[in-house]
Structures are given as C-alpha cells and as structure tokens.
Design brief:
Chain lengths: 284, 343
C-alpha cells in the first residue's frame, strides 16, 4: 500500500476509530450497575444488565414491535417507492421528474419535528382527513396515537432515501433492453417482470436494506405520534433513562440493539449478494 | 523612515499583545461574574430572562442559560462532563434531585449561611442539597367549551364514556409516576401497591387518547381541540389562556403536589451560584414567577397569583409522595405500565 493511499485513508480511519471508541465506552458502561434510587453507577464489570434484559418481557416486546414495524414500512416503501423511482428514471416529462424530485428534496430538507407536527395536523381527530370524513358524513377515524400514525410518518421519512437509492440503480438499466423486449412481442407488464424487475433487484435490495435500517432506529415519530402505546427499541432505551436513570441498562439495550442491526444487515447483505449473483451476474 | 516604520510595527505588536492580555484578563473577570444556569427553555424565556438584566445591575453577575430538554438529559450531560461541568446551578424536579444528590462528586450541599432567604420558605421546600423554586398541583386541565356540562369536578368524570378518546394522561416518565399514583389511590392502592392503578390504566387504555411523553404534546392537543382534558399544571392553564384559549383547571382528591427547583453544581463558582439561588427565593422574584408562570411561590411571604389561587387544591385534596420510593420503583412501574398498555 502506497504512502498516498495510507494518507488518503487516514480521515476515514480516524472517523472509524471515533465510532469504535464511542461503541466501546457504551459497552463498558453497559457492564456497570446502578444502585436503585441513585444516580451513580459502578463496577466491577458484570453481565447482570444483559441477563435482566434477556429475561425482560418489555424488552422483547420492543424488539418484536421494532422488527414488525420496520418490515411493514419496508414493504410499503417498495409498494409506493418503486413506481415513483421508475417514473423518475423513465419519464420523458421533465416537469413531472422535477415535481417528484422537488417533493423528495423538500421532504429531506424539512426537519423531523416539523414533519411530526405536520402529521399531527393531518391525522389528528380535528385534522384534515377527519374533517374531510365528517364533511361527507362519515364517522371519525382513529388515525393518531397508534401504530398507523407511526408507520405513515416513518414511511414519509424513509421514502425519499428509498426512491433516490433505487432511482440511481434504475438509471443504469439501458432502456433499449425494455424496447427490445417490446419489439419481440412482450407486453408492458411482461417486459417489466422479465427484464426491468430482475435487473433492478440489486438496487432494490440496497434500497430496502437502507430503508429497513433507518426504520429500525426511528425514535422521534414513535415518541410523538405513537401516543405512548408504540414501544420500539429506541423509545425503550429513552424510557430507561427517563424513568429510572438506569444508564447502564439503557447502554446494554443499545448494545443489543446494535448487534440486532448488525445481524439484520448481515442477513439482508447475504440476500443482496444472492440476488446480485442470480440477476446481475456479479461475482459472489 | 525605516526607523519610524519599525517603531510603528513594534507599537502595533505591543498593542496587539496588550489587547490580548487585557482581553484574556477581562474574559477571566467576566467568567467570574457569570452564573451558568442549566434550566428548561420555558423557565428561561418566561421567568429568568426578564429578571436577568436587573440581576446583573444589582450583583454584577450575568445569568448564562444552558437549556435542557429534561432533567434526566441535563443530569446525564453534567455527569458526562463532571471534571468541568460548565454549569453552576441546575434546575430539576425533587425526585430526580434526590437521585442526583447521591453523586457527591458533582453536587455540593447548599451553603445555608449564604442563603438567608431559606428561612422564608414553606415547609418541605428545601433540604441539604435541593431548594424548590416553585410548587404546583397536577390536576385536570380542561376545555369548558368541549366537556359535557362545561365543567369537570372529579377524576371519575374524565373516565366517563363522553370523554372516550378525548383525554391525555402523562406517561410515567412525565411528572414522575403521578398518573400511576393517582390511579392507584383512586382504586384502593397506594405508593406501596400500585397494581390496582396499573390495572385500571390498562383497562382504560382505549379510553385514553394519548399517554403523552411531554406536557407540550398534550397542551398542543388540548389547544387544537383534539382532546377535552389532560393532567397538567397551572402553568399549562396560563400558557393556553395567554393564547386566548378558554381553559379551566380543577384539583380534585387526590391531587399530587410537585416541587421543582435548584441544585448547586461543583463548578468552582459557588459564590455566584449562591447569590443566584438566594435571589431566586426573594419575595420579588417569587412574585414575578407566580404571576408569569402561574406556579406556587415557595416563599411564604408571597401570595400565589390570583389565577393560581382558584386552582390550588384544598389541604384535604392535596397529596405528597415519598420521592425516594418513587425513585426506587419508577423503572419497575414503567415496565408494568407499558405491559398493561400494550396488551
């Protein structure tokens, strides 16, 4: 490895080292113990926090809720995001592409809290949707302070990431391949199913793994729109600090959360490689 | 010509050096004449900021605010930078103050000899490490224009079918454990037996619109008419009334009273911190606080604001709890509560 390469790698190595130090300090705190009712935690190192968490019904419920909601959001991302990314990549209308891009970028630029309040106004009992329902004589729908509100708001947060990632992948698929399929007699649907979709699978896998990872870490939207009923891992960590100031236990939950994310990303990464080998001819 | 240029360069360098030395000196002086107060955004904006200029004029000490979102967050930050906390006075609730007081390396006992105003406080407003700035009841804040009959008189009212999906109860982390404790007392339980309260809240989970994780969320929902009533403090009444929203408050039996106040951080600036704390307890500052914030003054020479008097609980309706027990058990209660709500 040349000196220039090492010098170029230096900033990345420094950032990685910083991440490593933060994780290591978290892990070391997770091995400490808090005296009940106090604010001081101490050693000697013990796995007591992990033992307690693994036996905690609340922690497991938070894990399962997090995984289930992340999976639901990812599926919805594919359903809504794929057509949007395809229109963005293939539409000949410059204005349409601009409108879609503007909406996506505007979503990126608006802060999380702003978006959460916007959803409160839209989904609330006196919100725009319920006002519309009342106007046509329909009963009020419970759209807020539940999982529905959390799924919708997190979807709104992750969809731009999904669409823009997939858009990049779709742009690399030559349009001529679809034209060739159509010339050979394939219908639009057949051309999409047999040509575009398989070639876009590696990009789709990348976009879904990003979307899944972002959903796993959601905190603000479950906290603001879940009405105290939606307990995901991030809110469970927060609760441990707010309720009992049990920072070692919160750190242990954070470490378990990190390991879970690594495991999920490894699984998704494996699937991605399989897809890449099968449909894009990449070396395993 | 050359000589004069050299002289002027020397002069310039000397001037820069002198400025730097003087600057450093004046910074050090200014540093000594500051008191860094870690507090909540609304407390700074509404209570302390208007008093800061007069305090500086009177004592020469500038109040520097450091805003925290919650006491737990503030404590975590202080502990993480304990070698040099950069904070002299920390605002918190009494429960977390008792927890924090166990960190002897971070907090110092109140220097009672430098706080003559301690003698003017109502009973229970201070201990060796913590002194309250205010107290408040956590009762029912409601919209008379939305509730049936225009009035709420008892806790049982808000659990009637007419209030379904129209009330907000604080999650256990807000007003530490008070929702669970009120529900427990109403259902035959106590601080030592909160099971009846948690079971009741579990049964009522579909009746409650939200278990709010912050007072602000519930207050905004009440302002928008999303809910008819919430558990809150007189401060919420004042804030909503200032927005021309018609709200009322009732403090039925049992209404918990909560103290919130200050602790002194070991930051090498204890004299300025003591001056600030003592001034906070003086009658004129307490009067300003109760008028602006609508919370109870701890200085017994000061009458509560007129709007507050109407909503304070009668002595037989007011309850206080053992904060040490709450500290020890809140984590366990929260877990049980979350389980009951998730069922």
């Amino acid at each position: 490895m040349s000196r220039a390469t090492i010098l170029l790698m230096l900033p990345a190595l420094l950032v990685l080292t910083l991440f490593g130090v933060v994780l290591a300090s978290f892990a070391s705190v997770s091995l400490m113990v808090l005296d009940p009712g106090s604010a001081v935690f101490h050693g000697p190192p013990t796995l007591a926090n992990y033992t307690r968490l693994l036996g905690s019904e609340g922690a497991w419920r938070a894990v399962l809720t997090t995984l289930r909601l992340s999976a639901e959001i990812t599926v919805l991302c594919v359903l809504f995001g794929y057509p949007l990314a395809r229109v963005l990549a293939r539409s000949h209308s410059r204005s349409l592409r601009r409108v879609i891009l503007f909406c996506l970028v505007a979503t990126f630029l608006s802060g999380g809290v702003t978006r959460a309040y916007a959803w409160l106004i839209i989904l609330g009992n006196q919100g725009l949707i319920n006002q519309g329902l009342r106007a046509v004589g329909l009963p009020r729908a419970a759209l807020i302070n539940n999982e529905f509100a959390v799924v919708v708001s997190v979807l709104n947060f992750v969809l731009p990431f999904f669409v823009l990632t997939l858009f990049g992948a779709l742009r690399t698929i030559p349009e001529q391949l679809e034209h060739a399929a159509r010339n050979l007699g394939a219908s639009r649907l057949r051309s999409f199913v047999s040509v575009t979709l398989p070639l876009s699978l590696p990009g789709l896998a990348a976009a879904t793994s990003l979307c899944f990872a972002l959903s796993l870490g959601a905190f603000l939207f479950p906290q603001m729109l879940g009405g105290g009923r939606v307990h995901v891992l991030a809110t469970a960590i927060y609760d441990r600090i707010q309720a009992s100031y049990d920072i070692p236990s919160a750190a242990a939950l954070a470490v378990l959360f990190f390991l879970l994310v690594l495991l999920m990303l490894a699984v998704v990464g494996g699937l991605r490689r399989l897809v890449a080998v099968r449909f894009a001819g990449e070396a395993a | 010509m050359t000589s004069s240029t050299t002289i002027s360069r020397r002069c310039l360098l000397a001037a820069i050096a002198a400025t730097a030395v003087l600057g450093a000196g004046s910074n050090a002086f200014a540093q000594g004449k500051q008191v860094k107060v870690m507090t909540f955004g609304s407390t700074w904006e509404r209570v302390l900021k208007p008093l800061a200029p007069a305090f500086k004029q009177e004592t020469g000490i500038e109040i520097v605010p450091i805003i925290q979102n919650s006491s737990a967050e503030g404590l975590a930050k202080l502990q993480a930078s304990r070698q040099s906390p950069g904070v002299d006075v920390w605002f918190t609730g009494e429960a977390i103050a008792m927890r924090a007081a166990t960190d002897k390396e971070l907090f110092v006992p109140l220097p009672k000899d430098k706080l003559p105003n301690l003698g003017k406080l109502i009973p229970g407003a201070s201990n060796d490490m913590f002194v309250a700035y205010w107290y408040f009841p956590t009762g029912i804040v409601y919209r008379p224009d939305l509730v049936p009959g225009g009035k709420v008189t008892a806790w049982s009212d808000i659990f009637q079918p007419a209030f379904k999906n129209a009330i907000a109860l604080p999650a256990p982390t807000v007003y530490p454990g008070r929702t669970i404790l009120i529900a427990s007392l109403l259902n035959g339980g106590s601080i030592d037996n909160v099971k009846p309260g948690i079971e009741f809240l579990g049964k009522m989970r579909d009746h409650v619109a939200m278990f709010n994780s912050s007072d602000t969320n519930a207050r905004r929902a009440l302002a928008r008419g999303e809910i008819m009533a919430m558990i809150g403090s007189p401060s919420a009444v004042k804030e909503l009334a200032d927005q021309n929203i018609a709200v009322a408050m009732v403090s039925p039996k049992p209404t918990p009273l909560i103290f919130e106040g200050m602790m002194m951080v070991k930051n090498g600036n204890e004299d300025a911190a003591a001056t600030f704390i003592n001034r906070s307890l003086a009658a004129d500052w307490q009067k300003h606080m109760t008028d602006i914030y609508n919370l109870g003054p701890v200085n017994k020479e000061v009458a509560p604001a007129e709007a507050l008097v109407k909503v304070l609980p009668t002595p037989e309706n007011a309850v206080t709890f053992d904060e040490a027990k709450i500290n020890q058990r809140l984590g366990e209660w929260t877990e049980e509560f979350n389980k009951a709500i998730a069922k």
